[in-house]
Amino acid sequence: MKVTINIDCTPLEARQFMGLPDVQPMQTAVLAEMEKRLMAEAAKFSPEGFMRAWFSEGQQSADWFREVFKGLYAQAGAAATAAGRTPAPE
Questions:
Q1: Residue 52 placed within a domain
Q2: Residues spanned by the domain of 22
Q3: What are the Cα distances from residue 40, in Å, to 16, 43, 73?
Q4: Considering 33, 35, 39, 77, which has the largest number of Cβ atoms within 10 A of its Cβ?
């Protein structure tokens, strides 16, 4: 014997019928807190924030940053030359 019962209800109605607690207020509070923290962290990743972090020590950081990019461009130029392409002018 096979019995099939179809129940048409919303998730909220099903939770209420089974006696489960309403977690909607807690979920709303947690999501609001997560959004607040996410926005605070995202503000740190603004271009201005990166520039402040990279150049916070003044000229020494600017020189280091310039040397890093100079090395990257030199490697890219060497790889392009080895592949038979002409590197971009400096």
A1: yes
A2: 14-82
A3: 37, 5, 34
A4: 77
Cβ(53)–Cβ(46) under 8 Å?
no
What secondary structure does DSSP assign to 36-56, as a single string? HHHHHHHHHTSHHHHHHHHTT
| Residue 33 domain flag | yes
Q: Which residue has the tokens 């997560």?
A: 34
pLDDT band at 32 (very low <50, low <70, confident <90, very high): very high
Q: 15: part of which helix (H) or strand (E)?
A: helix 11-18
Q: Total domain count for the chain? A: 1
Q: Which residues contact 55 (CB under 8 A, 6 or more apart)?
A: 61, 62, 65
In this structure, is residue 2 part of a structural domain? no
